[in-house]
Amino acid sequence: MEEFADLVREQEKAMENIRHKLALLPDLPGCYLMKNREGTIIYVGKAKVLKNRVRSYFTGSHNGKTQRLVSEIRDFEYIVTGSNMEALILECNLIKKHQPRYNVLLKDDKTFPYLKITNEAHPRLEVTRRVLKDKAKYFGPYPNSYAAHQTKKLLDRMYPLRKCGVMPKEVCLYYHMHQCLGPCVKEVSKETYDQIGQEIGSFLSGGHEEIKKDLQRKMQEAAEDLYFERAKELRDQIISIDAIMEKQKITTADSKDRDVFGFAVDKGWMCVQILYVRKGKMIERHTSTFPFYGEAYSDFMSFVTQYYSDNPALPHEILLPGLDVVPAETASPGHGETVSGIAPTAAAAEQPKTMEGLLVAEASGEGAYTAGSDESESIGDRLEAESDEDSGSQESVSGAGLEDPVTAAAALQEWLEVKVLVPQRGLKRQMTGMAADNARVSLDEKFRLIERDEERTVKAAAALGEAIGLPSMHRIEAFDNSNIQGADPVSAMVVFIDGKADKKEYRKYKIRSVEGPDDYDTMREVVRRRYERVLKEGLEQPDLIIVDGGKGQISAAMDVLQNELGLFIPVCGLVKDNKHKTSQLLMGDTAEVVALPRNSEEFYLLQRIQEEVHRFAITFHREQRGKSMVTSKLDSIPGIGEKRRKLLLKHFGSLKKIREASVEDFRPLSIGDKLARQIIAALREDEQ
Question: 10 vs 7, 14, 38, 661, 676, CA distance in Å?
Fold first, then answer.
């Protein structure tokens, strides 16, 4: 009770400090950083008017997710910027630096692959996720690694750049297959490489039709000269080009490179869809789904900003959705409102919403894009109109500012120096609508899969309970032991609630009283420790206990439960076959086999439980074994006790780094040169 009172007093003091700081906020654009009680930055945002935006967090009502964010705020900082563009860039940099838990984060594994022609005397074509200022040529980004490698595979067959990382002393098989010029044995001019680079660039920029015609001409010439093998190679290259390019269904008349964005939000999640249009052809799409806590459009723009900061290969034009493009049923997190009040236009509603529909419209002549049909609203006109309005108007968490699509597009255009449009009418508006609708479909699919999985697991748990005669099967606890010839014995417990793993309930056990590889006594100890604590602390008891093993393990567990603790919880065992896969379910002290169909959901649930508890136990055992190996190697060196061992591991971090260290590296630890040499020699001797 006293702790709760202290917490309330601390919160009141923090809010008093926040109120004083709110009164001093300027009417300027900038970024704000929200902090929790530990001083950790939990959210970074941007605002056209800092005073209005930051105040909105502490006034009025919010939906559940925004309220959760606000409840953790104990302080804030702000940084004034000279323009909206600077605020956009600063927000991106601050998010990357601090990785706030409530911000949209474009993780490192979301960086996109590129094709790269290296800047070397004899260049290579490779796939990379890092774009460096190394004077190499980069093409992309590609939505996934598979698309990049498939394109590289085709280009490797068409253009004879070297494939080897290190130049060999003699030609390889690629040279004899006419897929390498053989720079290892003969001189290749820079002009030749420049021409190949230009052709690759032309191909990747959409000029594949000209290259295809050239290959067809060469194929005909080879066939006329009776070089049938060469003609077949050229024919296969043409087929490969057709296979790659047949996916590019949607075309535009102006042959521009475009990135088309759309997004949808629901149940606290956001899905962003990017359609890649290259040389007027839609070649691929990419979907990112993640939780978000701020205002929908603002967090969407944070994603876009981070995306282009990590992917500097820019298109000619970027199309962003307006607020009317977001599907009507999509919920906005700001103040619990929805976008349902902004209905799409009738013309937009009649337009086809999927990629296939758009293709049909194009084939019928209704959806052909033309370069002169750009009906996007002028950013300059909107900005001039906005400049006449009162800039001090109240700005809510879901209000105007950088959350306004046109203002955000203007800031992005100023930063990237490429054309950024928010289409209001016409077929470009249809493209952003298609992206948004596909995002909606992806998000709905995600929720349907989650619901289906939950329904399936709940039914599987209920069916398992029915099969073994239990009225309820809410909580299952499963145990497994792990050791190697009795060394470093451990045990682990996993918990499944309604058929779904509850990882926060998992527990690890170091075995204390058992010597040697005695699986039965190990099971007795861990069951005793677990359920003594359950009784002592009044924790929830499971409906079923599962042990990894047969009759011996079941009897050991039941003996402790019934005869020592007075608990009568059903116990069953899972037996594995000779392939170490779940084979049978044994029930009770008599180890009676429970007949379950191998293809049933309840049997699949048991498989998942057994695999999960085994994974958890063996992972813990490997951790303990690794620690004991480190301990034994250092303890065997004269002059190294427990204190010095801990000091060495804390300073160097691992045995490998200790082994690679020099004598001078040990001096800050007050270890003399003689002992340092002994440590290094002993560890290097063990390695050999």
Answer: 5, 6, 12, 48, 50
User: Which residues on adjacent β-strands are paired with residue 494?
Assistant: 478
* Whole-number CA gyration radius for the chain: 32
pTM over 0.85: no
Largest CA distance in the chain: 95
pLDDT digits (tens, 9 = 90+) for 574-600: 988 777 778 888 987 788 888 888 888
pLDDT at 326: 57
Q: Is the pLDDT of residue 554 over 90?
A: yes
| 8 A C-beta contact, residue 328 and residue 339 | yes
Residue 482 has phi, psi (to 5 degrees) of -145, 130
For residue 209, give the 3-state DSSP assignment: helix
Give the dihedral sign, CA 386/389/395/399. negative
Give the pLDDT confidence score for residue 364 in this predicted structure: 32
H-helix or E-strand spanning residue 266: strand 258-266
- Per DSSP, 599 falls in state T
Backbone angles phi, psi at 472, to 5 degrees: -135, 140
pLDDT value of position 549: 87
Angle CA(673)–CA(678)–CA(682) in degrees, nearest 5? 150
Q: What is the mean pLDDT of the chain?
A: 78
Q: In whole angstroms, how far apart are CA 22 and each of 27, 68, 332?
A: 11, 20, 26
Cα–Cα distance measured from residue 507 to residue 529, given in angstroms and rounded to the nearest whole number: 11
DSSP of 282-329, one letter per residue? EEEEEEEEEE--S-HHHHHHHHHHHHHHH-----SEEE---GGGS-TT
- Is the model more confident about 336 or about 651? 651
> Rounded distance, CA 140 to CA 112, Å?
8
281, containing H or E segment: strand 281-291
DSSP string, 143-207: SSHHHHHHHHHHHHHHS--B--SS--SS--HHHHTTS---TTTS---HHHHHHHHHHHHHHHTTT
Given a cut of 50, whether residue 358 has pLDDT beyond it is no
Three-class secondary structure assignment of 34-86: EECCCCCEEEEEEECCHHHHHHHCCCCCCCHHHHHHHHHCCEEEEEECCCHHH
Chain centroid, CA 384 distance in Å:
40
Between the CA of residue 470 and those of 112, 267, 364, 549, 561, what are the distances in Å?
51, 35, 62, 21, 18
The pairs formed by 122-130 with CB atoms below 8 angstroms and a separation of 24 or more are: 122/162, 122/167, 122/183, 122/188, 122/193, 123/161, 123/162, 123/193, 123/197, 124/161, 124/162, 124/163, 124/164, 124/165, 125/152, 125/155, 125/156, 125/159, 125/161, 125/200, 126/152, 127/152
Cα 544 from Cα 521, distance rounded (Å) = 21
Read off φ and ψ for residue 143, nearest 5 degrees.
-70, -25
Pull the structure tokens for residue 414: 């100023």
Inform me whether the pLDDT recorded for 438 exceeds 90. Answer: no
Average pLDDT value for residue range 195-218 = 77
> Averaged over 53-81, what is the pLDDT?
84
Q: What six digits make up the tokens of 487?
A: 């060394």
The answer to which of 20-29, 274-283, 380-389 has the lowest mean pLDDT is 380-389
The whole-number average pLDDT for the span 174-192 is: 86
Beta bridge pairs of residue 195: none
Both ends of the chain: CA-CA distance in Å? 61
449 HSE (CA, 13 A, CB side): 6
Phi and psi torsions of 376, nearest 5°: -65, 145
Contact (Cβ atoms closer than 8 angstroms) between residue 81 and residue 30: yes
